[in-house]
Amino acid sequence: MKNILWLVVGVGIGFYAAHQVNKTPQGRAFFADVDSKAREFGDAVIEGYKAREAELRSAVAEAEGVIADLSRRGDA
């Protein structure tokens, strides 16, 4: 319980400090830069996820085609 209290206190102090830093022009520029980099990273993760998903869907479709061919050969 004591550790949770320290965590909450630390988060509160962090938010307060960030709020104070954000009041300055340099602080706003810093947070804008951090925000920009975080968005770029998120976009890169999304692009990678979508590319991998397309690869997997293609592989599954190809495997289904092979299974269907083998199934037809077995029926003949």
Write out key terms for the chains shown.
76 residues; mainly alpha
Helix/strand layout:
Elements: H1 2-22, H2 25-75
DSSP strand count = 0
Main sheet makeup: none
Any idea what the shape is? Answer: elongated
Order of helices and strands: HH
Helical segment count: 2
Mean pLDDT: 94
Radius of gyration: 26 Å
Q: What proportion of the residues is helical, as a percent range? A: over 70%
The stretches of 5 or more residues where confidence is low (pLDDT under 50) are: none
Strand content range: under 5%
Structural class: mainly alpha
Intertermini distance: 70 Å
Structure notes:
The protein is mainly α and 76 residues long. It contains 2 helices and no strands. Helix 1 crosses helix 2. The relative contact order is 0.05. The mean pLDDT is 94.
